[in-house]
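User: I want to check something. If I give you two sequences, will you return the structure for each one separately, not as a complex?

Assistant: Yes, each is folded on its own. Here is the first sequence with its structure:
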Amino acid sequence: MAKESWSMKGELVLACNCKVFCPCVLSLGDHPPSEGYCQTWAGFRIDEGHFGDVDLAGINLALMMEIPGYMSRGNWSAGLFIDERASIYATKALTKIFSGKVGGTTHLLSILVGNFLGIKREQITYETEGDTRIVKIPKILDGSVTPIEGKNKGEPTIIKNSQYWIAEEIVVARSNRSRIRAFGRNWDFEGLSAEICKLDWHN
């Protein structure tokens, strides 16, 4: 049976426990994270998207992941947060996409995630204030991430042309606030590594 066509376009922000900047963007899992393990959350804003005939536009998401060592060795733990505004059909579609079982950009998740922590439907906001991105889930996530200015004043530092699976261009950033409490975890990444990327995932 053919897999449903899917795509998501918009923006994502990711924050982790690495010192600035996360080495995994360039090492691609061949070297461990700066602390020897990875704890991370990501926020997603879908501006346009679909799964088959299901419209995904206007939905926000968040993902929590814990990786015990080298990223490429797997045994990841992951929990998914889906916008409470999403329809039941969109919720099912996004669950399939983030399981990695429908192929495409997220296929790696089906191989590397060994412990799926579950899905929570929550009120998720993803806002932009100047250059700062703010992602919030009441009582769960309080994230604020700002790009690190490059040599040219007013322009961010950007990593291009890497083989990083998440995006073709990575804006190097730092967390202003980065507190997440969920699935038995309680993390705070204030002042640590973050990135902002164009979301263009599909199969």
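And separately, the second sequence with its own structure:
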Amino acid sequence: MAMVQTLGLLVRLAVRNVRRGWRHSLAAVATMVVGFVALATFQSYLEELMSSQLRTSWARNMIGEVMVRKPGSADADAKIHPEKYRLNAADQRFIDGWVRDHQSDVKASARSLMAVGMVTAGSTSAAFLAIGHDIDQGRLARRDWAWNAWAGHPLQESEPNGIMVGLLLGQRLGCQMPDTTKIFDPKTALPRPVERPLHCKTNQVQLQASGATGRVNALDAEIVALSSESVREFDQQMVWAPLPFLQSLLETDQVALYNIVLAEPERAGELQALLRADAERAGVKLEVLDWRDSEWGETFRRGTELLGTYRSLVVFVLLAIAGSAVLTTMAKTVRERTREVGTLRSLGYRSGHMLAMFVLEAAVLSGVASAMGASLAWAVRAAISSARISYSAGLLAEEILLEIAWSPSMYLRGAAF
């Protein structure tokens, strides 16, 4: 009982001291608020940047939570003999059957095939990297990016020979690059679903590539749109085409991989394991994985690691500065109150009581600072979001919308520190 009474008295003393020494309290609170806002805003910005870029990359490239391909597709031999590492008709029947059996879990199942070769428009030729995909399923796999045409319109089932080319490749083939400032909706940062004019010297081009037998095949195609892969180097060579068109060019009925988009992305690990087990029981050799674990996800993994290291460094600096400022302020407060400490000691309070009183004062200040910091951080986030600020980011062809995530966990960690 006496301990409870002592604790209650120490709490009252701590609150009274915070009010009496309001100048020191204000300095400590202001320092903690600034540190809180800086820490929460920076951490939330990086969190939103990584998650938004991942979502955008997955949508633009029709990437699913479950990727299915032949074992060995990442080996060096697959680059020399890609036809040996494609999914044949029997593999495709099994995967299609599995998707039908789990249709409540699957939003889209997009097949794709890749090819390299030369594209010719009149007297102009250029190297290309083509991706052929199922038009209808690819549209679903692009999520919010269903409209991905900068000029012209997205690929359609009614245009079996229609192709979409990268901005810089289209420019080389005689197509005018659209005004990119009018493409994106500033509120959503997505392309406006509007068919903008496409002006080319000639829309008719010819694609040449080596087929499965080794001979060079050629097919006529029509440019129906210009688009972007967001990275300039890819915009210089990218071609998107209907899957049957690219299969005809390569003389094959095979595909390179399936991208399965799930209704509940958080179940990706469970469904990957299920598909892997079902394929093993059926005697079908498949590699089932997350895109981030593939060779294509290496750039993302490295970028994430780099941002993680950068975040840790900046957070350490912010915490060191804010912590040192708070420590200095509190230490000064304690040094100026030696008479108070002496008086309380003479009344029978032990050193542990004094320590508890100062800790309680710090807790009160921290609680007030955390509440104020969270409110201010929320206001900063709202102001930045409403401003719709965009900025350039190195190799990316388009600007990135500056957004700050709402992250309660970041706020709680800031308050805990």
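Because they were folded independently, the notes below concern the second chain alone. The chain has two domains: 2-58+301-416, 66-289. The mean pLDDT is 85.
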